[in-house]
Amino acid sequence: MFIDIAKIFVKSGNGGNGCVSFRREKYIPLGGPDGGDGGSGGNVILQADRNLTTLLDFKYRKKYDAENGKDGSGSKCFGRKGEDLVIKVPMGTIIKDVETGKIMADLSHEGDSYAVAKGGRGGRGNYHFATPTRRTPSFAEPGMPGEERWITLELKLLADVGLLGFPNVGKSTLLSMVSKAKPKIANYHFTTLKPNLGVVKPEGTPAFVMADIPGIIEGASEGVGLGLDFLRHIERTRLLIHVVDISGVEGRDPVEDFIKINEELKNYSVKLWDRPQIVAANKSDMLYDDEVFERFKGELNKLGFNKIFKISAATREGVDELMKEAARVLSTIPIKDLEIDESDKFIEEEKKFTYEINVEDNIYSITGSFVDRLLRSVNVNDPDSMRYLQKVLKDKGIIEELRELGIEDGDIVRLEDFEFEFLL
């Protein structure tokens, strides 16, 4: 089964907590604080692997968690870092943040990797907070929480050549004749429901990868039929072979079909429309008059297309010459990574602990992630911890903000479930 889009939830590991500990050894009565730091949480990393060709694994597993960092311990022993979780994906995978819709990374080469969720930092042990006036700090920092987000994985096949054309024009037959690929072939529209890749090795030229992708129809750039699937997968190709049914057995005009498909390309992406094209006039073995091909060739010459080959995928007539020309043209086109507009790139926001102050009946309630983290790091029953809390509130500018809001001596300051009397 071929799966080319998947949505998964990733969560990096939380940082381990710092330790509150004091050195207690014989003959060392005042050893001082020696609580170690917590370990950082593990990252969630996506890595490109050439041995994978589909996102099928992500259909059955949607949640991925990295390991948490371990807590610190006494004797300044640091907690172990959480192990990174490395998730293998096929080459050509685009990673998008679901919330913003922005592109986080394009893993187009073997070994490319990207950390989609970074582990939380470990908290500092209490020995960091010892000062000449605070020699026995009985508090330590908690670990930072890990990141979590929903991401979309979108596979855009890595093929050098993409086969372009309406359904049932012979793209699958052509691929099966020039490679070992075995696509499903039948005489009805949309035989190809999933992309097929094949390695083509023309005699005397380097090998290249060719993709037979679900056919495109009029309105494809607006999502009609399987068109968007097709268009997404040919974005990476360096060269397009436009296969046209020249026989007319279905009553279609090959010139009109050629123009319609190029219009769909242009509507979807001008860059895709500008990509080099070789035209393969297929099913020539069914022509009742060779003049049909000459007229077709003349019309396309007027449109600016000069590389036109008369072929029959079924009998291999002209196929070898077509493949050799494709290899020659590819040798002149450098390999480029997928271009991503700056407006589409994901920008990671800096982690900030925020707070807000609400005033009601002379009670000043301070809430937010800043408060949650601060209260986890102090012992409200310890005088040293409370002095540290007051210092942090002052350094953060909260004390000054309370004064600007009109707090008076004796008013209540509330931090979650704890209430304190404010003294000017």
UniProtKB/TrEMBL annotation:
- The superkingdom listed in its UniProt entry is Bacteria
Query: Which parts of the sequence bind Mg(2+)?
Result: S172, T192
**Per the database record, which ranges form the OBG-type G domain?**
159-331
Q: What is its EC number?
A: 3.6.5.-
Q: Which residues form the OCT domain?
A: 345-424
User: Which Pfam families does the record associate with it?
Assistant: DUF1967, GTP1_OBG, MMR_HSR1
Question: Where, by residue number, does the polypeptide cross the bilayer?
Answer: none
Predominant localisation class = cytoplasm
EC main class here is hydrolase
Q: Spell out the InterPro entries in the cross-references.
A: G_OBG, GTP-bd, GTP-bd_Obg/CgtA, GTP-bd_prot_GTP1/OBG_C_sf, GTP1-OBG_CS, GTP1_OBG_dom, GTP1_OBG_dom_sf, OBG_GTPase
Q: Where does GTP bind?
A: 165-172, 190-194, 212-215, 282-285, 312-314
Q: Where in the cell is it found?
A: Cytoplasm
Q: Which residues form the Obg domain?
A: 1-158
Cofactor(s) needed: Mg(2+)
Task: Tell me which UniProt keywords the record has, alphabetically.
Answer: Cytoplasm, GTP-binding, Hydrolase, Magnesium, Metal-binding, Nucleotide-binding
Q: Which family does it belong to?
A: Belongs to the TRAFAC class OBG-HflX-like GTPase superfamily. OBG GTPase family.
Query: Per its UniProt record, what PANTHER family does this chain match?
Result: DEVELOPMENTALLY REGULATED GTP-BINDING PROTEIN-RELATED, MITOCHONDRIAL RIBOSOME-ASSOCIATED GTPASE 2
Report quaternary structure and partners. Answer: Monomer.
Job of this protein: An essential GTPase which binds GTP, GDP and possibly (p)ppGpp with moderate affinity, with high nucleotide exchange rates and a fairly low GTP hydrolysis rate. Plays a role in control of the cell cycle, stress response, ribosome biogenesis and in those bacteria that undergo differentiation, in morphogenesis control.
Protein name, as recorded = GTPase Obg
Give the originating organism: Clostridium brassicae
